[in-house]
Amino acid sequence: MTPKPVVLVVEDEPLLRLFATDMIEDAGFQVIDVANSAEAILVLETRPDVRIVFTDVDMPGGIDGIKLGACIRDRWPPIEIIITSGKPWPIGIKAPERSVFFSKPYRQDRVIETIQRMAA
Description:
The chain is built from four helices and five strands; from the N terminus they run βαβαβαββα. It is α/β, with parallel strands linked by helices and 120 residues long. It is globular.
């Protein structure tokens, strides 16, 4: 049996994290979920099987989703990044290479299509 691709969901809002986790698991992926960027980095340091990170922009703790994406691109270049926010992308801020941005509320089918493409 082929292992399911692993997606790390980073979202500080518990209900939104549960929604994202269920959506991605229902599409056939293994999900690890955490509440902030510090927890995400700890997971990435111990789980080399993470293929995609799905992160919110606004998070407590000083490292937002954009900074987390930049950190991932520097330390774990093969990992694909999806960034989401209820606000527009901030003007003057460059997105990490190969990252994809979705505004909330996002269309589930488009997010899943993107995850499937990234995992292929």
